[in-house]
Write a structure and sequence with these properties.
The structure is a homodimer. By secondary structure, the first copy, chain A, is an alpha/beta fold. The longest helix of chain A has 20 residues. In chain A, the strands form two sheets. In chain A, strands 8-7-6-9-10-11-12 form a seven-stranded parallel sheet. Chain A has a five-stranded parallel sheet with strand order 2-1-3-4-5, covered by helices on one side. Helix content of chain A is about 30%, strand content about 15%. The first copy, chain A, has two domains: about 110 residues, NAD(P)-binding Rossmann-like Domain (Rossmann fold, 3-Layer(aba) Sandwich), CATH 3.40.50; about 180 residues, Rossmann fold, CATH 3.40.50.
C-alpha cells in the first residue's frame, strides 16, 4: 500500500515540489501516492502544508500521521485548534545555509562599514576610519535553534566574540551561551551587532521593546532576519531617530510585503530586505519531506516535530 | 648592550609605533635603544621601515642584522640595490584577519546581491531573485600566501567551492589548489567570484589582462584587495563596459589615492574602496617587530624573511 500524501501547500508550490518529492521518494524506495487534488480526508496518511496552504480544518484527516510544513515558522498552524495530528516544521539544510550566509554577510557589511563605500563612489578617498578586527567587535545572537546556532558558530569562526541567548540553556563551542531574563540583559548590553533569530511565540512578541533596546550599546546595529513580531517598530524607529541605534537591517515585518509608505523604507538608518534571508529550497526540503513520510509510515520518531507547549 | 633599533618608517608612524614597540620589548625582556632620529649608521642593529620610510641608501648600515618592513608589500625595498641586509616583510596577524574579513564580506555582498537592496530602499519588494546557496557559487582565490590562504580557508568554511591558484603548488584542506599556467586557466574558468591576492612581482604585472579576463565565466565578479598592478585597467574597463564582467570591487590601484577623474569611480559596475582591506595594526605588528629583533640579536631564523629571488 502506498502512503497517501496530500500536497496541500498551495497551487503555487506544487510545480516546484512535485518533481523533487517524487524523485526523492523513488531514490528512497518509498511508495507514495502523491496528489495536490483534494482527496478523501479519511484516506490521507500525510499532509504537506505551507503558510498559503489550502486546508483550514484538519479534523476530517483522521488517519493522518504527519502534517509536514514546508516553512520553519509554524505560528498559524499551532494556533489552529483543529490540527491535532503530529506537526513538523521544515528544517531545510539549504535554508540554514542561506540564513547563515545572510547573517554573516550583513554582519560583515556593518562591521566593515561597506555602505560608506557603496554610497561614496564620488572620487573621495575615505581611508581614515578603519574598522577594528572582528575579534574586537562583539556580536550577540538571540535564539540558538537550528538557524541561530548555525549563525553563531559561523560568526565565531570568523573571530567575532559571540554571545548567544536562548530560552533554555544551550552549549555551543566558541559561543558564550546565556539564558533567562538576566542572561538577556547581559547579552543585549554586549551587542555591538545584534542578530535576532528567536521563534515567534507569545513570549517573544515585541522582545525588542523600548526597555530592551535601551540596553544595547550606543550606536549598536540590529540585523533581524527572524520574525517581524520580535520588534516594537515604534520603539525601534524612535531609537533610530535618536541615533541610539546606529542601523537596522530588517528582513521580516509584521505586514509583508512591507507597505511602500512604511517609515522603514525611507529611514537613512534602515535597510529593508524583502524576506529573502532564508527561503526554502524545494530540492533539499523535499528530501526532508520524504524522510519524514518514511518515518511516519514506519512509526519512527519524526524530524523537527513541533512541541505545542513551546509553540515551535 | 641594548639592541640599537632605528625607526626609519617615517614621522607619521612614529607616534603609533613607539609605545607598542617599547611595551612589547619590555614584556619580552628585550633591551632596546629605540629612536627615530638618524643615528650613526654603523651602530644600528635593526632598521624598521615602511613605504614612506626615510632611508634610501642602506649601504652605510654595515652592522644591521635586520630591515623590518611594517607592510606586507616589499616591492620598492627589493628593488633597492643598496639593501643587502636580511629583509623581512610584515605578516601582522591582525592584518591577515582584516584581509579575511574584507574578502569574506565582499564575496558575501556579491553572492547575496546586497547592493540591490542598499540601492533599492524605494518601497519596491524585490524578492523574486534569490541567490543560490554558497555551495553552488564557485569562488577562485589567486595567491595562496598568508593572506590568500587565510581567505580561501574562510570561504571554504562557509561552503563556497573554492579553487586556489598559486605560483608553486600548495595544499589547503577544503580548497582545490592549482598551480602553473594551465592551473591558472582552469582556476579562472571556474570563478563566479574571483579574489586576487597574489604578490606584486614582475610575473604578476597585469596578470588580469584581456586574455585572462576572457577566461572568466560570463558575468563574473572580481574582488581585488591585492595589488593595483595585477590588473590591466583598460582591459578590465572594456570587459565591464561589455557586461562580460559583472562587477569589480577594487581596493588597490596603480596610483593611490585613485584620482577623482579615474573612470573606476563613476563606473556603475565598479566599487572603489580606498586601500583599507588590510591595514597594519600597530599593536599586533609591534609584537612581530619585537620578536624579529629578538631573533636577529640571537642569530635565530627570522620571521617572514624575504626571498630576493622570488621578490617577496
Amino acid at each position: 500500500m502506498p502512503a497517501t500524501v496530500y500536497f496541500a501547500a498551495g497551487a503555487d508550490l506544487w510545480p516546484d515540489y512535485e518533481g523533487p518529492i517524487r524523485r526523492h521518494a523513488a531514490a528512497a524506495g518509498l511508495d507514495i501516492a502523491l496528489d495536490d487534488a483534494a482527496p478523501d480526508p479519511a484516506a490521507v496518511d500525510v499532509i504537506v502544508t505551507a503558510p498559503g496552504g489550502v486546508v483550514q480544518d484538519y479534523a476530517p484527516f483522521t488517519r493522518a500521521r504527519l502534517v509536514q510544513n514546508l516553512w520553519a515558522g509554524v505560528e498559524r498552524l499551532v494556533a489552529n485548534p483543529t490540527l491535532t495530528q503530529p506537526l513538523c516544521r521544515m528544517v531545510d539544510p539549504a535554508m540554514t545555509e542561506s540564513m547563515t550566509e545572510y547573517v554573516v554577510g550583513h554582519v560583515l557589511r556593518h562591521h566593515l562599514g561597506i555602505d560608506v563605500h557603496i554610497h561614496g563612489q564620488d572620487g573621495v578617498w575615505r581611508n581614515t576610519v578603519l574598522p577594528p578586527v572582528a575579534r574586537n567587535r562583539p556580536v550577540t545572537v538571540l535564539g540558538l535553534g537550528e538557524l541561530g546556532g548555525a549563525a553563531a558558530r559561523a560568526l565565531a569562526a570568523l573571530n567575532f566574540p559571540v554571545t548567544g541567548w536562548s530560552r533554555s540553556q544551550k552549549r555551543i563551542d566558541g559561543v558564550d551561551c546565556l539564558a533567562g531574563p538576566e542572561g538577556l540583559a547581559t547579552a543585549l548590553s554586549r551587542a555591538a551587532i545584534l542578530v535576532t533569530l528567536v521563534p515567534d511565540t507569545a513570549e517573544t512578541e515585541s522582545l525588542l521593546n523600548a526597555d530592551r533596546l535601551a540596553l544595547l550599546p550606543e550606536g549598536a546595529t540590529i540585523v533581524n532576519p527572524g520574525r517581524g513580531t520580535l520588534i516594537d517598530d515604534a520603539a525601534l524607529l524612535a531609537a533610530l531617530d535618536a541615533g541610539r541605534i546606529g542601523h537596522a537591517t530588517l528582513d521580516v515585518f509584521r505586514v509583508e510585503p512591507l507597505p511602500p509608505d512604511h517609515p522603514y523604507w525611507a529611514h537613512p538608518r534602515v535597510t529593508v530586505t524583502p524576506h529573502i534571508a532564508a527561503a526554502t529550497h524545494p530540492d533539499t526540503a523535499s528530501a526532508v519531506v520524504v524522510e519524514n513520510i518514511r518515518r511516519a509510515m514506519a512509526g519512527a520518531a519524526l524530524l523537527h516535530r513541533v512541541d505545542r507547549g513551546r509553540g515551535y
